[in-house]
Amino acid sequence: MVGTCTPLVRARLSALTVLALGMTVLLACSSTAGTDSASNADSNAGSETNASALAEAPPQVPPASIDRAAVDAAVGQLDGYVEDMMARTGAPGIAVAVVYQDEVLYSKGFGVRKVGEPDPVDTNTMFQLASVSKPVASSVVASLVGEGKLDWDEPIRRFEPGFAVSDPYVTENASFTDLMSHRSGLPDHAGDLLEDLGYSYDEIIARLNQVPLEPFRDNYDYTNYGFSAAGVAAAKSQGTTWAELSEQKIYEPLGMTNTTSSQQEWVDSPNHAFNHVPTEPGSTTWEAKYVSDPEGQAPAGGAASSVDDMAQWIRMELAGGEYDGTTVVEPEALQFTHQAHSLAHPAETPGARDTFYGIGFNVGTDSQGRVEVSHAGAFGLGASTDVVMLPSEQLGIVVLANTAPVGVSETIAAQFMDYAKNGELTVDWAPFIAGQFEKMVEHGRSETDYENPPGSATPAREPSSYVGTYTSPFYGAAEVTAEGDELVLKLGKELQSSYPLTHYDGDTYWFEPVGENASGPTGAEFALTPGAPTTLTVEYLDPLGLGTFTRS
């Protein structure tokens, strides 16, 4: 076909493939059009050897550049990294595992399961995974997709009729992909505050239709209950529960005997890590004060596992769904979870890298252009987890810690990957990551310094002015009672949380809530207008404008 150029470009080709095809055609055209092949034979002869050594197209997967020696050297640093983080933070217990080329090179526990008790953390100790549950959940749903029992673009309402949002179109069309890549339009962490107040999965899902939406499929907002609705829909499609489906599809085939998506099974395990919080903000001493109960959002945050078990899951993920010669998840379905489906964090400076979200995974590229899939998890009431994988290098690490989020797991994982890639640490990760967590804590705090009221503060009214039962369509009931001159606020499904109110200024009081999403002192502002019902707006419950209760 000398002198003709007719490329076939299919709609589903990636941008890199299209570029490669275009370059191939361009080279072909420039070497043939309007020339005589015989007259060019001599001039081309000298370049045939060089040309034959060149690739036909730019590679989509960078060639592996981390060898076994580099990984072994990084593994050799891990004991020191863990011990350093325990010294810096006082972390009670940590467990780490590393997988390389389908082999578990390192698996080790450090410290104790509970402060003040001698039981050690070992490689079978079960930690709550928090949001590292999401990538594990993605493989559960992918197994059904690979078997032809579900489609990623199938609306979840076909199987979860309780799911509804404020836009009927989104209600009927939001798919597994939409909800598991956080692009449904549900705002950030929608429903989590209801969990803090004691509401169940069904009760929370039933209230999501009151939440204002962002643009459908055009906005990334991280939502545990949107993700969980998709997981529950997958389980209902098979006539089972999420915990049972996870066991059948992933945990049992991979021999993950110390893994569960049942809160009660984790609590009942004799070898589980207790959750810890600092005895005071910024302290390096810890106490086992709370038990996080993420049962309502089990697909998004309710799994518990050991590093030995998580290493088997990483093996399967890096092997494209294969495990010891058996296909656990079909490769195409599993790869879909590693693909970018939402633009999570657009680059803010020229030349910077964007980051994306897949199905239960953060998806990005490292400084050498390699795809990295990862996820961190945390409970403010005492869990810290991280998993990072480089598929092109067949390398992955998981770190589990029984601390509130102060950067323990993320630092160890980052240090290991940095050393494996570069043969040394190129970033001082511990202070950098600790600083990021400090910013997150400050970001969630009220801008008002309630503990220091203004010197010109207006006195409060008589306590009886505020006493009564209040209701919110979204949060349910609240109750304000007077105990002498002190007001007490009760919140939650059964009014189980009781908080003394401290006067700040005029009709504004404050208290310090307790819960996974609590973030320091918050306001309780009464509005008493003649001829209108008295209202109470609770600041930390009001990020979406739903935190106003009306006195009945």
Topology:
Layout: H1 15-32, H2 37-45, H3 48-52, H4 68-89, E1 93-100, E2 103-111, E3 127-128, H5 133-146, H6 168-173, H7 176-180, H8 192-196, H9 201-207, H10 224-237, H11 242-251, H12 263-268, E4 277-278, E5 286-287, H13 298-301, E6 304-305, H14 307-318, E7 322-323, E8 326-327, H15 331-338, E9 342-345, E10 355-357, E11 362-365, E12 371-379, E13 383-390, E14 395-401, H16 408-422, H17 429-444, E15 468-472, E16 476-483, E17 486-491, E18 497-505, E19 508-511, E20 522-527, E21 535-538, E22 548-551
Antiparallel strand pairs: 1-2, 1-14, 3-6, 4-5, 7-8, 9-10, 10-11, 11-12, 12-13, 13-14, 15-16, 15-22, 16-17, 17-18, 18-19, 19-20, 20-21, 21-22
Helix pairs in contact: 4-16, 5-11, 5-15, 16-17
Task: Kindly report the average pLDDT value.
Answer: 90
Uncertain spans: 1-49
User: What sort of overall outline do the alpha carbons produce when their principal axes are compared?
Assistant: globular
CATH class of the largest domain: Alpha Beta
CATH architecture of the largest domain: 3-Layer(aba) Sandwich
